[in-house]
Amino acid sequence: MAAINTVGRRKTSVARVYLTPGSGTITINGRKFEEYFPTMIYQQEAIRPLTVANVAGQFDIKANIIGGGINGQVGAFSLAIARALNEHDAELRGPLKSEGLFTRDPRMVERKKFGRRKARRRFQFSKR
Fold it and tell me: What range does the domain containing 88 cover?
C-alpha cells in the first residue's frame, strides 16, 4: 500500500500527514512525537483516532505541521489522522465520527478593526 496523505486544519494550524503501514513510529517536523508534544494530554489527544480505531502501532506517521499554537496543532494533527484512517478503511468512519473526530473546528481569532482597540473593544469614551 502506498502512503496516504491528508490535511487537517484547526484555528490557523495546518497538518499534513503521511500514513504508511509500519511499526508505529510517529515523526513530526523531523522530531520524535514525544519531543514535539511533550505533555501526556497533548499526546493522548493527538493519537486519539488511532486508539478509537484500535490500530495503534500498525502505521508509521510522518507529519509536517505549520502555524498556530500547540493546541491548534494537536487538533489539526488529530483531524488529519482521522481522515487518513478513513481513506485507508471506510469501515472506521462510524466509530471515528461518533467520537467527533471528523469535525473541523472553524473558530479563528477575529481580526482587529480600524479605529478600535481590539477586534470589538472600543477606546474608552470620555464625555468631558
Answer: 4-98
pLDDT under 50 in the chain at which residues? none
What is the pTM assigned to this prediction?
0.89
Answer yes or no: are the C-beta atoms of 112 and 119 closer than 8 Å: yes
What cell numbers appear for 124 in the block?
Answer: 474608552
pLDDT in tens, 98-120: 999 999 988 999 999 999 999 99
| Burial bucket for residue 45 (CB in 10 Å: 0-12, 13-18, 19+) | middle
CA–CA gap between residue 23 and residue 30 (Å, rounded)? 17
Return all residues near 113 (Cβ < 8 A) that are at least 6 apart. 119, 120
Residue whose C-alpha cell reads 493527538 in the numeric block: 46
- Is the residue at 91 inside a domain? yes
What's 75's domain CATH number?
A: 3.30.230.10
**In 3D, which of 2, 12, 128 has the Cα closest to residue 70?**
12
Amino acid at 77: F
